[in-house]
Structure formats: structure tokens, C-alpha cells
Amino acid sequence: MTTGLRRPKARLGSLLAALAIAGGALLSGLPAHADEPSAGAAGREAPRVDLVLDVSGSMNQADIQGRTRISVAQQSLNDVIDALPSETEFGIRTLGAYYQGDDKAQGCLDTKQLFPVGKTNKVEAKTAVATLRPTGWTPIGLALRGAAQDLGKGETTRRVVLITDGEDSCAPPDPCDVARELASQGIHLVVDTLGLAHDEKTRRQLLCIANATGGTYTDVRTQEQLTEKVKQLVDRSNDTYAVAPVKTAGTDTCESAPVLTPGVYSDREKFSEHRVYRVPVKAGQELRASVSVSLDRAVARDYGVLLQATSTAGQELVRGTDAGSGRTDVVSTGLRWSAAASKGYATATTTATASASPSGKPETIVCLVVSNSAAGQPGVAADPGLPLELTVDLTAASPAPDGPAMGLGRGWILLLVLTLAGLVAGLLFGWIARWRIAVWQEN
Where, by residue number, does the polypeptide cross the bilayer (predicted)? Predict the structure, then answer.
């Protein structure tokens, strides 16, 4: 009896081994899932960010959650440095950090590189930040020029992140004029400003600097907000540094809207406004679009952003939405659409709005509508509008996921292989179990 029971176990092992080999052979024919480096990435410049930190005397004020402004900034910078992506070239420039005398003319020259832009030694960078003590004046304009030199020139977008608690106390040069000067040089420089003080003069100046270069302004109230915002800006430099956003201006109707081709665009949208853009989509193409709206001023809780693709007749084709409740200062959403994915419900409209493209292929005009449901807190200015960044792409249309014979590829093949393997294994185990019982009964 014992011998009879061992025999089926040995045969069972052989059968399972054979099944494993067969399954492995089947699975080996499937395409590999291993990630491959994207084409052209090796020869591209790295994203470059220079953080300009105000270390003037007023940074000693303790009015952010009971802590001094400089200590809040230092803690946030430590967190940001710890989270830096490995590919980012990051540097730090100070203003008002070293000169301790009373000569204002000399103090207004006080801007220096604390840490050069490049691959960051995180321990050295955090040690340098920890040594800073609020000292002098606020030469923002001069510091912006220095930051542009720190970042150098190139084909990719460079980003300056300015953290300050007040307006420039050393003009000339006026920082708004410097920002316009840098923007006019065509060096792909974006300046984002973060204000630790909340007076109207400072807000206007920081908004002016950001607007001149296509950047954003954020009114900072807590350390957590400062940390998250700087991290977002560093991450954004990784996402968009290779493509400088093109300024555009959406309209309130599709007929008068600007025509967009694949690319990245920047615009501004007032509270609860709708901005419309047009995108020609050829037969066989799929439209992919995404939008991010930055809440660069104090807004009421509960807000959202809506991105719609509609026909020129106003029929909605597809939509994407995102919502927040005061815990984030960027809301983003996206969509994808093609005539093939419409399942016929938009056929009449798209046929009516189709035109002939220069290539001779039929073309459908799709209207992209960006809407927001944000409302400003009391006393918050509505102008200029909230900064938005719109990305448009056109690719070969992918088949609808639930269509017949859609060739979803390895997903379906893998499911089929696993089903067949399970069926075969079930039959084998059933036969082996019956055989073992028969042997046991004979013994």
C-alpha cells in the first residue's frame, strides 16, 4: 500500500514538471514587460532648478505657525533636498544673507550662490542651508539676474523658485523689469514666486515677476504648504523642462478659439470661467489632452477643474474632472478621444463638422473647454486669472477596449494561457486522484 501511494506521487511530480515546462514555453512567446529607456533621453539636457532664498532681516519674524520665517524655509528646504529626483540639477542662491553693515548700497549687492546648480550632494546642501541667519536687505532684482547666470543657457526650460517675505528694498533694478528682461532674451527661464508675507504690495510685485516669465505665484501660509509647493515646482521642471509652454489665450466660444497643435500651452483663467480652444483631429487620430490649474492665491474650500471635448455644435464627446478641498494648490485632469471610440453617438456631429485637411484626410474640429469652480476668498483679487497649463497630443487612434477583436495583445493571450493551463491542470489532477483511489482500493 505504501509503495502504491509513492508511485502516483512520483508520477504527479513528473506531470507537474511537464506542465510547468509547457506553461513556460507558452509564456516565453509573450512580449516582455520590462521597461526600456525612452528614445533620445540619453542625449537630452537635465532639468535645472535654482532656488533663490530671501535671508533678509525680516525673515526673523515669528508669524508662521509660531515659528520664524527663516526656520520654516530651512525645514522646507531640507525636505525638498531629501526628495530631489536624481536627474535634477539643483542649486541655491541667497539674497541678504551676509552683509551685516549699515551701508545700504553695499547691502544691496548681497546675493551669492550658496550651492551651485548641479548634481546635489544632499548632506552638503542641507548643511549650507542650516548656517543661514537673517541679516540684510532684499535685492530681488539683482538675485534674479544672478539666478539666470547660475542656470546658464540651453534649449530646455530652466526654473527659478523665489521664496521671499517682502518686496525688493534695493531697486533699481526693479525685479519686474528684470523678469521682463529675462523673458525677452528667449532663454527659456520661468520664475515661480512664493510669498511668506501677505501685504498687497508684495503680492503685486511677486505676481508681476511670475506673470512676466510664465510662472506662478503662491501665497504661503504654512510650512507644509511651502514644502509641497516647492516639491511640485521641482517635479514640474522634470515634466516640462524639455518643452517650453507656449502662451495662448482661450476664448468663450469655439468659433473664435485659437487653434492648437500638439504641444504645451500656458494661459490664465478667472474664477469660475470657461476657456475654449480648438484642436483639428484627423481620421485615425486620437486626441489626448490634460490641464493643470494652479491656485496661486487664497480660494474658498471645495473647488474643481473640468476639461471637456465637445463638437462645434456643443455636443459633449468626453470629459475629465478633478476636485480639491483646500489641501492642494494644483488641480489636474485629462481626457482622450477619437472618432472610433465614440461608438457612433457622435457620428452625426463629427461628420457635419469635418473638413478637408491639407493632406486630404477628413478632419474633425474638437473644442477643448477648460472650466474651474474656484472662488476667491474675501479681498482676493480676481485679476490676473489663475495660471493653467494645457497639454495637447495627437496619436494613432487606439481601438475601443470593449470592441470585437480589439487585439488587446498580451493581456488576452496571458488570460487564455492561464485558463488553458488551469483546465489542463484540473483534468490531470482529477485523473490522478481517481487513479490513486483505485490503487488504494486494490491494495
Answer: 412-433
Instruction: Write out the chain in H/E/C secondary structure.
Output: CHHHHHHHHHHHHHHHHHHHHHHHHHHHCCCCCCCCCCCCCCCCCCCEEEEEEECCHHHHCEEECCEEHHHHHHHHHHHHHHCCCCCCEEEEEEECCCCCCCCHHHHCCCEEEEEEEECCCHHHHHHHHHCCCCCCCCCHHHHHHHHHHHHCCCCCCEEEEEEECCCCCCCCCCHHHHHHHHHHCCCCEEEEEEECCCCHHHHHHHHHHHHHHCCCEEECCCHHHHHHHHHHHHHHHHHHCCCCCEECCCECCCCCCCECCCEEEEEEECCCCEEEEEEEEECCEEEEEEEEEECCCCECCCEEEEEEEECCCCCEEEEEEEEECCCCCEEEEEEEECHHHHCCCCHHHHHHHEEECCCCCEEEEEEEEEEECCCECCCCCCCCCEEEEEEEEEEECCCCCCCCCCCCCHHHHHHHHHHHHHHHHHHHHHHHHHHHHHHHHHC
Q: Are residues 150 and 62 in the same domain?
A: yes
CATH number at residue 84: 3.40.50.410
Q: Count structural domains, the chain.
A: 3
pTM above 0.70, yes or no: no
The per-residue pLDDT string of the chain (443 residues; one tens digit each, 9 = 90 and over) reads: 333 333 333 343 443 334 343 444 333 333 333 333 233 344 567 889 999 999 999 999 999 999 999 999 999 999 999 999 888 999 999 999 999 999 999 999 999 999 999 998 999 999 999 999 999 999 999 999 999 999 998 777 789 999 999 999 999 999 999 999 988 887 778 899 999 988 889 989 998 898 888 788 888 999 999 999 999 888 878 765 556 678 899 999 999 999 999 988 989 999 999 999 999 999 888 898 999 888 777 788 888 899 999 999 999 999 988 877 655 567 888 898 987 765 544 433 443 344 444 555 578 899 999 999 988 888 777 888 888 889 999 988 755 444 444 444 455 677 777 788 878 887 787 777 777 666 666 66
375 plus 423 within the same structural domain: no
Tell me which residue range forms the domain holding 276.
Answer: 246-396
Whether residue 187 is found in the same domain as residue 261: no
